[in-house]
Amino acid sequence: MSTDAVPGAEIYTGQFAADPYPTFARLRTDRPVCPVSGRFDQYLITRFDDARVALTDPRLSKDLYGPEAHYLRFFGPNSAGLNRNMLNSDPPEHTRLRRIVSQAFAPRRIEALRPRVARIVDDLIDKVLPHGRAELMHDFAIPLPMTVICELLGIPAADHGRVLDWTQVIRTSGSGERPPEQERAAVQDAQARLYHYLTDLVRAKRARPADDMIGALIDACDQDGTLSGAEVVATTFLLLFAGHQTTADFLGNAVLALLTHPEQLELLRSTPRLLPSAIEELLRFDGPLPVASPRIATEDVEYQGVTIPCGAAVGVVINAANHDPAHFTDPDRLDVRRVRGPHLGFGHGVHYCLGVSLARMEAQLGLGALLRRLSGLRLAVPLAEVRRLPAASPFRGLLELPVTFTA
């Protein structure tokens, strides 16, 4: 097995953005642990068994903010105020931060939000229903989870628009819509504006306490010192971004998958009880987070006979693992009747998705309402014209999803 690095340009092509799964299949078969060079060098792990082990391997650290300052490789010099959070930390630091936040995502608390989330879903559909057409990313998939997480955090409704604008600048970086220098400047500006906004919001809520998630984080900071002020801001950013990004991309990917598999779409419409299992299958089939957030080898680590050297970055390729034929029968086939299996779409181990209950509820309510209320749903453009996030993006999602339908 070759240990030479593959240039990222040979992997992250336009064709890869449209359909990465043939590339993932080749890597799983020929180079299941593959060094890749590019914007930053990393080793990709693509087989299910290896991925599951790697996600819990203590030798693969999530701490990017130690003495080596690995975060500079991934996020750049302006990101420390936003990204130093539980996603980029190891136990016991991760345990401390997650324990504080996890109470807000307890399943019964999330279930209590169901009527409000259903109302947001219906309001968004009501706005587009009379027109017979919509751009579902802008009109539905993005504002649904963004509205929910902003309300949970306690971000004032009047500020939702500009917060959304800043997060979308970060989300769509690399899309080619601006020259590279302008894009870097735009991303840095959006990060800075978001950081200062959240810092000011935390300060205002400390002065005038509120019964919301930011208020709870401030209490953990002020009453018992379990959070620092900087950690309140960084945790708020993580919850804001993680609380809407992947759900928005999932909804877009799921609708597109169903529109390109019309027999599955009709099966799901005719058998609504399949929706919970269909959500899991759609997540497995084309998940919004193709590669888990980066890990760093703290010593030489061997997988599949390949030595990953100390200090190297490691990317666990979730979407490749979820198409591993060693674990899933006919994995490249979308089957909403598939018995729910042990997919890795929500991660694995201590970094398993904290907001899984909320994400599932939003997905079920959102997708269910779209299928129920928008009959004749179909793409408004040829599939080849559907615009996607760039191939090298850490997210798999759509820039636009134009559709037509009847009320």
CATH architecture: Orthogonal Bundle
Helix content: 40-55%
Radius of gyration: 21 Å
The amount of beta strand, in percent, is 5-15%
The count of domains is 1
E-strand count: 11
What is the CATH third-level topology name? Answer: Cytochrome p450
CATH superfamily: Cytochrome P450
- End-to-end distance: 56 Å
Strand order of the largest sheet: 1-2-3-9-6-4
Q: pLDDT under 50 segments (min length 5)?
A: none
What's the helix count? 20
Which whole number gives the mean pLDDT?
A: 91
Globally, the shape reads: globular
SSE-based structural type: alpha+beta
CATH class category:
Mainly Alpha
Q: How is the main sheet built?
A: 6 strands, mixed
Topology, pairings included?
Blueprint: E1 6-7, H1 8-11, H2 14-18, H3 21-30, E2 33-37, E3 42-45, H4 48-54, E4 60-61, H5 71-75, H6 80-83, H7 93-102, H8 107-111, H9 114-128, E5 133-135, H10 136-141, H11 143-153, H12 160-171, H13 180-207, H14 213-222, H15 229-242, H16 245-259, H17 262-270, H18 275-285, E6 295-297, E7 301-303, E8 306-308, E9 313-316, H19 318-321, H20 356-373, E10 375-379, E11 402-406
Parallel strand pairs: 1-2, 3-9
Antiparallel strand pairs: 2-3, 4-6, 5-11, 6-9, 7-8, 10-11
Helix pairs in contact: 9-11, 9-20, 12-13, 13-15, 14-15, 16-20
How does this model look, in words?
It is a single chain. The chain contains 20 helices and 11 strands. The chain starts with 5 loop residues before the first strand and ends with a strand. The chain has a single domain, classed as Cytochrome P450 (Cytochrome p450), CATH 1.10.630.10. The strands form 3 sheets. Strands 1-2-3-9-6-4 form a 6-stranded mixed sheet. A 3-stranded antiparallel sheet has the order 5-11-10. The radius of gyration is 21 Å and the shape is globular. It is α+β, with helices and mostly antiparallel strands and about 400 residues long.
